[in-house]
Specification:
CATH superfamily of the largest domain: TPP-binding domain
Bound molecules: zinc ion
Distance between the termini: 22 Å
CATH class of the largest domain: Alpha Beta
CATH topology of the largest domain: Rossmann fold
Helix content: 40-55%
Strand content: 15-25%
Number of domains: 2
Strand order of the largest sheet: 3-2-1-7-8-9
CATH architecture of the largest domain: 3-Layer(aba) Sandwich
Shape: elongated
Length: about 250
């Protein structure tokens, strides 16, 4: 691992008062959750942008659940990894103000993070697509796992409160996330290649306001050239290394 980059990231965070983290599928991969957007393995035969769209769900919810079930199993079996724990630790030290995530697995909260903006939704509740009734998802999850379609009393299908590919991000949450980014002095991008709009554009407003940028991601991102620190490493190794270095300095 690039120790100079680790040390520089720690120095930036040491001086930061309002750091924010933006995370994606890469931070949950070490927990065993595959990235369903990169069509591989279980999902190679489906185009997720088609199966996991609201339009498709409305006409054929069974097809969505057949596609979703393997992903659900991975998420139910997963535990937070050292990258999630490192960000929760940074929040406890009052350096990190918020985690903005594209993940739906809830692992940031399970790791202890409190201020989490889940831009793509979560699995804690579900909403009937016909009447809009919202219910806790836990009782429905066993039905989903058995291959049953979770139906509402009105006859409509329950959809987990995820943001599907043709849906807009929740406005209030997006605004909170944007506000956190605009007022941060250091932005950590962890486990996302910044390939999905509009999240891909969010770091630009931090850069425009002079925030430092730390990127920890296996693959390149379009902002690597503008970042103060770039680590093309496993987030579950690099983030704990940065926090350990930060603790040595303080
Ligand atoms: Zn209903």
């Amino acid at each position: 691992m690039d120790q100079a980059a680790i040390a520089q990231a720690a120095r930036i965070l040491h001086g930061a008062r309002r750091a924010v983290a933006l995370t994606g599928a890469g931070i949950s991969r070490p927990s065993g959750i595959p990235d369903f957007r990169s069509a591989s393995g279980l999902w190679a035969q489906h185009d997720p942008t088609e199966v996991a769209s609201l339009r498709s769900f409305q006409t054929n919810p069974q097809r969505f659940y057949d596609w979703f079930r393997p992903l659900l199993e991975h998420m139910l079996a997963a535990h937070p990894n050292p990258a999630h724990l490192a960000l929760a630790d940074l929040e406890r030290q009052a350096t990190l103000q918020a985690v903005i995530t594209q993940n739906i697995d809830g692992l940031h909260q399970r790791a202890g993070s409190r201020e989490v903006y889940e831009l793509h939704g979560h699995l804690r509740s579900a909403t009937c697509i016909a009447c809009g009734r919202q219910v806790p998802a836990t009782p429905l999850i066993e039905r989903m796992r058995r291959g049953e379609l979770p139906y509402c009393a009105c006859g409509g299908a329950f959809k987990p409160d995820l943001v599907l590919f043709d849906e807009l991000l929740p406005r209030g949450l997006f605004w909170l996330a944007q506000h956190a980014i605009e007022s941060c002095d250091a932005l950590i991008i962890a486990g996302t290649s910044l390939a999905v709009y509009p999240v891909s554009d969010m770091p630009l407003s931090a850069l425009q306001r002079g925030a430092a940028l730390i990127i920890v991601n296996k693959d390149e991102t379009y902002l690597d050239q503008r970042a103060d620190v770039v680590l093309h490493e496993d987030v579950a190794l690099a983030l704990p290394a940065i926090i350990a270095e930060l603790k040595r300095e303080t």
